[in-house]
Every structure is written in structure tokens, then in C-alpha cells.
Amino acid sequence: MLEPINISLESLNLTTLSPMIIPVIGALLILIIDIIKGGLDKTLYVMITILVLLLNIGAIVESVGVFTSDGTIMGVFDLVMVDGIAIIAQLIIVVVSLLFVPLALSHKRFHEFSYPEFFAIFLFMISGFEFMVTTDNLILIFVSLETASLALYTLIAMHNRDKSFEAAVKYFTLGALAAGFFSFGSMVFYALTGSIEINQISEVLAGNGYADIGFVLVGTAFLLAALGFKLSLVPFHAWAPDVYEGSSAAMAGYMSIVPRIAMFVVAMRMFEFLIHSGVVWLEVVLYIIIVLTMTIANIWALVQTDVKRMLAYSSISHTGFVMSAILIGTTQSNSALFIYWILFSFTNLGAFSMLWISRQKHLHKDQSSDHSFNKFSGMIQTSPTAAVIMALFMLSLAGLPPFAVFWGKIYMISSAVTGGYTVLAFIMALNSAIAGYYYLKLIVYMFMKEPEINKDGTAFVSNATLPLKTIIGFAVVGTIFSFIIVNPILEFVTALVYKSGY
After folding, report:
1. CA distances in angstroms from 478 to 2, 345, 349, 352, 498, listed in the order given
2. Residue 111 lies in a domain
3. What's this model's pTM, rounded to 2 decimal places?
4. Hey, how many other C-beta atoms are within 10 angstroms of the C-beta on 60?
5. Residue 229 falls within a domain, yes or no?
6. Which residues does 500 contact at the CB level (< 8 Å), separation at least 6?
7. What per-residue confidence (pLDDT) applies to 368?
8. How far apart are CA 266 and CA 144, in angstroms?
9. Is residue 364 part of a domain?
């Protein structure tokens, strides 16, 4: 007769789950309130969501103290792993989500925000992304990825326009394909090593000297394709511009930041040990994908006539820029990854928020799309404050000093040179110069052309509620005064990354 296994609650270390459980409890609370008393104003759900996210930040900050004193924390049968990488990624996910939520306090015509289900699904999605970054277990990563992705598909479709449904279906279809690739790649590594935990997989493969290198490459190819779809790396990027165009501008800005930081962490845990082990094939392929992603996305952005699609291709190029950190694989490059993405978050969310406040219910007869370049012609004359703010975000995304993204690019290029990737550093600098053209193109339209559409300027602030103005204000301050906060953030990030062993 088998003896019963006694497991104490203390050994499970359930406190490691608190940052992920808090959003789940908040989502369930919203649904319960709606069942008991339906038809309440959306402001209540926005406030509940903000409160839940503030509690979430508190739980993450508490884990920082525990990590710095005790090192990496394992919990729940070693499924949950709280290290410095997980803590930084969680903070980015939750803080950006906190900035996104007030964008829901827009005018009533954006009906998806009036549904309590929107906020519940949003919190479930955040929990999924947090689980992704706090584990090295491939099964939990897969379940978390699908939880977050299914929620995101639904949030996109809730915008309830023809292009929104099309975007959600495209995202769902290619997301299902990526999920299949991920599960197949995970299965290959499990067959090779008998483990689904990335740390143990690396130890087993190193122990047998990568004897089954052919199968390792097959598994790596499937995982690389899966992450390529989720990160919209070239040539897996085709869905991204269409999905961004079909989403609301606010959701497109959020999608350009949060899902990608979660995937960066998964890629960092999975690929860096393979690159360091000498799997030359992966290094070469990743190098090619990074260069193509930066360059081709920039070229496509040059010919766009819609500002939202231009920003979509721009974010793909930035993703390629940041993926180079995983190729380089040093502590400096991994720290640069997080620094870049933190600074990019301020600027990119601000740029998409500017599109959000100018969202129109009905297009002018001369408009081909809601965010065409022509719409912004002569904006300095009709809405000077909005024009200056939008120009600020464009200059930052172009990497001009002393704005936010400039510092991220400097640290990333510096880490490439230090890591011995001088040619890659040159390509990164060259792509930054190319990107400057299409960012400056919008500035030329705003400052050097006569107004063609919406000559009264009202369209540029048609959705400019106080909460939206406040969030844009935060983005402006973060973009302009980033040089003040960049060194403290760098020290904090580097300390956590270094202690994590990355």
C-alpha cells in the first residue's frame, strides 16, 4: 500500500502566487457585482480595476524585497519562479496596464468600455501574462499564453467594427498556429530530456553534450516560429498591421507593449542557454531574423499612408531592435532590453493615445481612413498643443536625444558593441536613421502643410476627456525627463538581472 504524501502549505510557498491571484480575484469581483446589480456606470469598474492593479503592484514590490534577500523563490511544486527577470517584467505589465485603464474613460460612443466583462477579461489577461513571466515550466507557459491570448482576441473583437472582427479572427487563427508550434516544440524537448522545465532541459542537454543536436534544432525551430508569430518578427509578422488597424488605437498601443514583454522573457529563458551552448544554427537564424525585422519593417513603414499602420510597422521594427539583446545574451544586453522597453512604453502608449483622442465616429468624405496622414495636415494651425505633443512622441520614437527612446537605443547599441556584435550595432544605427524619415514625415504634415481635413481642429480632440489628457501628460513627462530617471532605473534593473544569473 502506498504511503500518503504529506505536503505542508508552507512548503508550497503560496505567497509567490499573490501577484497573479489578485487580478483573478478582481475579475471575479467585477463579474459578481454585475450579476448582483447590472447596468452600473463604467466608472465603477474602472476604479475597481485600478485598485486591483495598485494592489498587484504592492504584491510585486513586496516580492522584490524577498528576492533581494533570499534570491530566486520557487513555489507551488516549483511551477512558479520569482526571480529578477520576472519581477521587472511584472512591473512593466502592471504599470502599463494601469496607464491603459483610464483610457476607458472616453466618450460613451466607445461602447466596449461600458461592459463590465471588458474589465474582467482584461484582468484575466494580465494574470495570464504574469504567469508567463514567473515560470520556466513549458506547460504553464503554454496555458498562460493561451489564457492571455484568448482574452486579448475577445477584447479586440469587442470594439465591434467590421475591421475589429476581422482583426480578432486573423489574430486568433495565427495565434492557434503559433500555439501548435509551441506545443510541438515543447514536446520535442520533453522527449529529449524528460523534463518540461527550461533549467532542467538546459542541464540535461549540456550533460549529454547535445548528442541529439538534430532533434534539438527541430524543437528550437518550432519554438522560434511560435515566438516569432507572437512577437510579429519577420517573416511571421503579416498579421500585425491588420490587427493593429482593426483594434482601437488604445488597444493597439497596449498590444505593442505588454504581450511582447512577456514573450521577450520566454524567449530569453529559452534561447539564451541554447545560444551560449554553441548551437550555431540558432545564432545565425536569429541574427538574420533580427536584421530582417528591423530593416523590412522600416521599409514598409516608409510607404504607409495611415499613421496607425505606420506605428504598427514601427513597433515591429522596435521589436527586432530589442530581440538583439537575446542574441547578444549578456547581463548588459538583458538590462538594456528592459530599459529600452520601459522607455519605449511611455512614448508608444502616448503616441497611440494621441490617435485615440482624435478617434472619429464618422469619417470625413475626403478621408480614406481615420488616421490618414492627410488628416494631420496643418495640425499646428488647428490644434497646436496636440501637434507639439505628437511631434514630441515622433522625435522620441526616432531616437533623437534627449528623449526617452534615445537612451534605450544607446544602451542597446552599446551592449552590442561590448558583446562583440559590431556589425549588428552598425545595422541598428542605420535602421534608426531610416526610421527617422517616416517619423519626421508626420511632423512635416503637421507643421509644414496646410489643413486639408477637419479645418476647425475639433477632430483632434474629439475624445479628449480629462483622464486621457492625464495619461498623455504622464507619457509626455516620461518622454521628456527620461534622462533624470534612466540611471536609477538602470541600476535597479541591472541589479535584478545580475542576481537572476542572466
Report:
1. 60, 9, 11, 15, 26
2. yes
3. 0.90
4. 24
5. yes
6. 72, 83, 84, 85
7. 60
8. 11
9. no
